Amino acid sequence: MMRILVTGGVGFIGGNFIHYMLDRYSDIQIVNVDALTYAGEITKHKHIEGNPQYTFVQADISDKQAMDTIFQLYSFDYIVHFAAESHVDRSIADPSIFLQTNVIGTQVLLELAKEYAVEKFMHISTDEVYGELDFATKETFTEQTPLAPNNPYSASKAAADFLVRAYHETYGLPVNIARCSNNYGPYQFVEKLIPLTITRLLKGKKVPIYGNGKQIRDWLHCYDHCSAIDFIIRNGKNGEVYNIGCQNERTNIEVVQQIMKLLEMPEGYIQFVPDRLGHDQRYAINTTKLYNLGWKPSYTFEAGLNETVQWYIEHRDWWEPMMWQKNGRKDRDVRNEEEPV
Fold first, then answer.
1. For this structure, is 128 an active site residue?
2. Is 242 part of the annotated catalytic residue set?
3. Of 314, 80, 325, 91, which is closest to residue 189 (Cα–Cα)?
4. What is the pLDDT of residue 324?
5. In terms of C-beta density within 10 A (0-12 exposed, 13-18 middle, 19 or more buried), how is residue 17 classed?
6. Which of 68, 75, 137, 168 is deepest in the core (most CB within 10 A)?
């Protein structure tokens, strides 16, 4: 029986990863540790609450004492570390919580992984740690690209990546780092580009877009991301970094326009707003290393986006309450009223 600690398993990708693994394997036990911050929506796991292979524990990964207690209660073979503050706009407004969760939290987990001799520490990172690519070239991020983060969120993730590497090099901790491109799919919090666009249009509201909307991202369906993580856990070489992407480069305005077409909405619902501070203009992932190892994505962007739009149409009962919930730290609405994309 493979015993897995999943951190941040109430979040978007971590939650989908838990569903993915439980759907495919009968010989695993998953303990989901999540602090239940504003972006964590636990109702996504209602259908697995009685599953004997699944346990939920509410805890903050940066709380060493609480996490040590969890490690004493459960004997983990693998740690799959998703837990992170991830919204760039929020990191610009308040970087401190990003350092606490993304850096200190990661160090706490690494120390416990070393102490309890886990078989592998799987760290989920982001292509944003590489910085920004030039529009004028066909250059892509490889695993050897120097890290050059440009905002507090990506800087905190880069710091976590360096800690993971250091624990491997210094202590021999078996680790892998996965750096993914932009994810989309079911259960994504409504402040992110694709769900924000879908939910605002379904509410008949305009979609605010930063600058000219020509920022380029490489899009990865979360189910493909989950299958890649599972593949790396089982096949990745210790100490190695793997990029996960699908070569689906699109500008933000193209993504929004494609969603509007699927929803049969006119372009008058687009509203351009001043650009974000330090807004990276292009990300693009080179996935040759992972492809050569034997993994391939299953989704085209068109099929994945169409499926995602349909999911949000059919699950208004999941996302509509979320648009009105309060953020306990700031005591303000987190509904997607004025969030640009």
1. yes
2. no
3. 325
4. 58
5. buried
6. 168
Q: Mean of the per-residue pLDDT values for the chain?
A: 90
At the topology level of CATH, where does 2-187+219-248+284-298 sit?
Rossmann fold (3.40.50)
Strand, helix or coil at 49? coil
> How many other C-beta atoms lie within 10 A of the C-beta of residue 105?
26
Catalytic residue from among 153, 184, 187, 312: 153
Q: What are the sequence ranges of the domains in the chain? A: 2-187+219-248+284-298
Per-residue pLDDT tens digits for 102-142: 999 999 999 999 999 999 999 999 999 999 887 777 889 99
Q: Which of 127, 218, 230, 249 is catalytic?
A: 127
Q: Where are the alpha helices (DSSP H) in the chain?
A: 12-24, 64-73, 88-93, 96-98, 105-115, 152-171, 193-202, 222-235, 252-262, 288-293, 301-314, 316-322
pTM, entire model: 0.90
Instruction: Give yes or no: 34 in active site.
Output: no
Q: What does the pLDDT read at residue 328?
A: 37
